[in-house]
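fwd from M.: "can u put these together and see what the complex looks like"

so here's what she sent:
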Amino acid sequence: MTRLAVRGIPTERAERLRGGGPDANGQPALRRRAQGTMNPCRHCLQLIREGDETLVLSWRPFDGLQPYAEAGPIFLHAQDCPRYASDRLPPWFAHLQPALLRAGGR
Ligand SMILES: [Zn+2]
């Protein structure tokens, strides 16, 4: 049986993006104030509080190009936050109906 391992994006990549490094489209992240209450940070997997400074960027979860390596928009806390690492989804995930999970192996 496969065990669930839930992780935020790697800390070194989050730090690079916060420092102005390029996103999946080769552009620096946009800096915005969070609007609404359902903007999950992809590093700590917590919901970003409305009004907090947020990075919006394009993310591709795989290093190399291949058919499943699509890119999409994500949010990050603009300030440092701890990387999520658990065998469970964050509690707020239960409120998403429906929800879609995409898994990858490393
Ligand atoms: Zn965060």
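replying to her w this: The mean pLDDT is 92.
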